[in-house]
């Protein structure tokens, strides 16, 4: 009996097959174990994977990259607006939903992010089936911890449209732990594991508590401004400066030349993870001139030194947040393609000198392997050595905060439901308002930090016609978050019993 695990990332996708008691990543038709999450539209066909990425230089306007950023989001979502600004393929508003504008030559067509994701999932399904030599539909799909219910549903629907029977969605940090069997072989006792993931466009660091075979997220920090593409970009800029030094031409303002350099830098970056130097050759980079440059690993590390420091910083902040020291962590799991970089691994080792660093599974394959193991567990425990029941506990994806004014009038944000809180959950909070106030306005936010923006406001409740009195009003707020992420809030003035309630459908 075979089952598969699929990791659909922002820049790449990867599929692992669980068969005969073990999970292995399978290579695609190009022989690569990781497939670019890129879809290109041409006159009569759609192409997913490496061919789409390689053809992007000539077909940038009809090539979709990083579709996962806007899956399940409305057009006015800040993430969609950011994606729209960065995308070479036009993103337009159709009924408050983002759509890609594709020019097929004969007509303009509008493609939804879910349709693009479906093509990538279909590519993964084909890859798994060609490796197995038979049809396989049962799959476990991984999702980032911070994904809300809408994004999860969109990802699930895209996978199902591609022909998958989705057994379960599993959070990426949990999949990383499953890949190494953490907490499964000796399920008694509590330990803390740090999962470090550096993908193509984002960095996330998660601290997990492992107790009796159960995984619980204590806290997670994500940084969308740091990812493997930043390293590629820094290297491409260095190559552009070398070209200028040699040929006296500045190509940084030429999009096509820079895209060629990005492709070359990307190949070099991967090579430098295993070799001490890499040769970058670009045919006809600018004005018919070829470019040839040798980059050493030491030069790459120097060019990207500030990025390495930026990639390590969130670890310390996260440990402080959960009140743990580096010695409290029993294992560090590396995941994400850019976690392969030797310099980065060395910096993490220096931070955790006495802790086991798990990198025996290639970091870009850890998450799909964990998903495939989960699929094997779900399909039949007789085929796997893991005999522990696997329980998924839904958690709150972001901090839920209440805003109130301090004595000086400054805004104070109090976290009522921290990210990682197992659901369902209930919290009660009492805030005091001056007795001479006839109304009280309560605002709730969801965020991954202590500072909030207006976009992150999820609810506003106003209690009106309060009795004026000398002592303060005691306003009791009760939050209840269900397993599906919906949030129910009631506010009650203790003195008068006046009450208001609101339900937010999806808040995680």
Describe this protein's structure.
By secondary structure, the chain is of the alpha+beta class. It has three domains: 2-163, Nucleotidyltransferase, domain 5, CATH 3.30.420.40; 185-360, ATPase, substrate binding domain, subdomain 4 (Actin, Chain A, domain 4), CATH 3.90.640; 395-504, Substrate Binding Domain Of DNAk, Chain A, domain 1 (Sandwich), CATH 2.60.34.10. 28% of the residues lie in helices and 34% in strands. It contains eleven helices and 27 strands. The chain has helices spanning 50-54, 78-86, 113-132, 149-161, 172-179, 228-247, 255-271, 297-303, 305-322, 342-351, 363-379; strands at residues 3-8, 12-19, 22-25, 35-36, 38-41, 46-48, 63-65, 91-94, 97-103, 108-111, 138-143, 165-171, 190-198, 203-211, 214-223, 277-286, 289-296, 329-335, 356-358, 399-405, 411-417, 425-433, 440-447, 457-463, 473-481, 487-493, 499-504. Strands 1, 2, 3, 4, 11 and 12 form a six-stranded mixed sheet that branches. A hairpin with a 2-residue loop joins strand 2 and strand 3. Helix 3 packs across helix 4 (149-161), helix 5 packs across helix 11 and helix 6 packs across helix 7. The radius of gyration is 25 Å and the shape is globular. The chain starts with a strand and ends with a strand. The model is unreliable at 382-391 (pLDDT under 50).
